[in-house]
Design brief:
Keywords: ATP-binding, Nucleotide-binding, Transport. This is ABC transporter ATP-binding protein. InterPro entries: AAA+_ATPase, ABC_transporter-like_ATP-bd, P-loop_NTPase. GO terms for molecular function: ATP binding; ATP hydrolysis activity. With 307 residues, this protein is of the alpha/beta class. It is built from eleven helices and 14 strands. The strands form three sheets. A six-stranded mixed beta sheet has the order 6-7-8-3-9-10, sandwiched between helices. Strand 4 and strand 5 form a beta hairpin. It is elongated and about 75 Å long. The protein binds adenosine-5'-triphosphate. Adenosine-5'-triphosphate binds next to strand 2 and helix 1. The site of adenosine-5'-triphosphate has 11 residues, from strand 2 and helix 1.
Length: 307
């Protein structure tokens, strides 16, 4: 049976005065999905995340977290929510375990539950080696892990992370991304970021906002693996351009380097067999024949420049 969404936003809008920052946005996130929130500056990502986390009232629309309406049942809805703001609310003078115990108690966990929850979260977030350190003395990467740990110490089913890898070095970013992927296995996760490669490496789904509206949403797998119409061809002993142009279903030939071409083909009819046969028969020295999938960057630029 199809599981109910853990995050559901219906016709969500937010006006600042007469200016519409978020315009009738609807989407759902299910358990096991990590959704990358993308958009150019001012697209409405922060406004949407603030509404989802109960920090900003929508002008209209409905938000449900794990089935609880955020407006009608705010306590029940928020008990299901973990939030890492762009600037994590850390107390630098606290030790890691003290701070996490404090956060767990704020979420209403009993002393016994707190003890177990902190142990678990230290383990999940790779903090067992630093649990007695002062937060102020941790590296930025470890501080970010503590920020994620405070967001999940009460075992929420929904996690919202605002630019979680900003300011981290590549090694720290990598380990925080691995952690987010792990979180996504059991929860519904939304990650806002400007890093498209980050979305490609950790997200299952993407949502692109432009001027407050959603211009694209869906599973990354489906969006990036649509029927391919372009082939990259590498030949050591290339024939004439005219010969390449008369390959079946080839509409246009573009030169990339002296030995490489991009063949634009009719949709759904890639002439790979014909190329391999011709290359063998006419000794073209074929060294590359690759279908070109669209990258998220191409898709993002197409969509955000169109609107
Ligand atoms: N408090 C406010 N008062 C008036 N306008 C606002 C307010 N907050 C945001 N805006 C406007 O709403 C629009 C959306 O802003 P928002 O911060 O949600 O975008 P964003 O996608 O998060 O951008 P960025 O990537 O730059 O953080 C912008 O045009 C912004 O100037």
């Amino acid at each position: 049976m199809d599981e109910l969404p853990l995050i559901s936003a219906v016709e969500l809008s937010r006006f600042y005065g007469h200016f519409c920052a978020v315009d009738a946005l609807s989407f759902e996130v299910k358990r096991g999905q990590v959704v990358g929130f993308l958009g150019t500056n001012g697209a409405g990502k922060t406004t949407t995340m603030q509404m989802l986390t109960g920090n900003l009232a929508p002008t209209s629309g409905q938000i449900r977290l794990a089935g609880f309406d955020l407006l009608d049942s705010p306590l029940a809805a928020k008990s299901q929510l973990g939030y890492l703001p762009e600037h994590p609310p850390l107390y630098p003078e606290c030790r890691v375990d003290e701070y996490l115990r404090f956060c767990a108690r704020l979420h209403g966990l009993s002393k016994t539950e707190t003890h177990q929850a902190v142990d678990e979260v230290l383990n999940t977030c790779g903090l067992t080696g630093v649990y007695r350190r002062l937060i102020a003395n941790l590296s930025k990467g470890y501080q970010q892990r503590v920020g994620i740990a405070q967001a999940i110490v009460h075992s929420p089913s929904v996690v919202v992370l605002d630019e979680p890898t900003v300011g981290l070095d590549p090694v720290q970013s990598h380990s925080v991304r691995e952690l987010i992927q792990k979180l996504g296995q059991q929860r519904a996760v939304i990650v806002s970021t400007h890093l498209l490669n980050e979305v490609q490496s950790i997200c299952t789904h993407v949502q692109i906002l432009q001027a407050g509206r959603c211009v694209l949403q869906g599973a990354l797998r489906d969006l990036l693996h649509q029927p391919v119409t372009t082939l990259t061809l590498g030949l050591h002993h290339a024939p004439s351009l005219a010969r390449l142009k008369i390959l079946p279903n080839v509409q246009q030939v573009e030169s990339i380097t002296p030995n490489k071409w991009r063949l634009h083909c009719s949709p759904g009819q890639l002439p790979t067999d014909a190329i391999v046969q011709a290359a063998a028969a006419e000794r073209w020295g074929l060294f590359e024949l690759t279908p070109e999938y669209r990258t998220l960057e191409q898709l993002f630029i197409e969509l955000t420049q169109l609107s």
